[in-house]
Amino acid sequence: MLCAFIFLNVKRKFGLYIFIVGAIGLILSIFWNFDVSRLIMWGIPSFFIVLGILWVRQIQNNFFQYLGDASYSIYLIQVFSIPVFYKVSSKYFNYTNGNIAAIMCLMFSILCGCLFYKFVETRISNFLKKLNTKRHI
């Protein structure tokens, strides 16, 4: 709510810099374990990332457009891809840093979600659109 309040009531300046500060804070929390609460270690950098992105001028980019289109599939499939990733990786790989494994899991979940979007969601959507079009004729 604070992020929305600031976004709506404060003049939009320095969005990219605010985003960079949040990203650096989050990256630092991966490599150094600060003895502070989770709210400070991850919440504040995440807050700056979201606020900064809101203030950055949007660009047209096919890759990010595709990720946005596939975001619902990524959301749906991650419930399955995360356990699969950790089951397979724990058997075949030994990660000394759990954060690296988490980043790889994130990438794996995005890949699985994009594949699900391409081969399942778009086909179901197209089928339903055709079905709906025939219904209204």
From TrEMBL:
InterPro entries: Acyltransferase_3 (IPR050879). Coiled coil: none annotated. Keywords: Membrane, Transmembrane, Transmembrane helix. The chain crosses the membrane at residues 14-33, 39-56, 63-86, 98-120. This is Acyltransferase 3 domain-containing protein. It comes from Acinetobacter gerneri DSM 14967 = CIP 107464 = MTCC 9824.
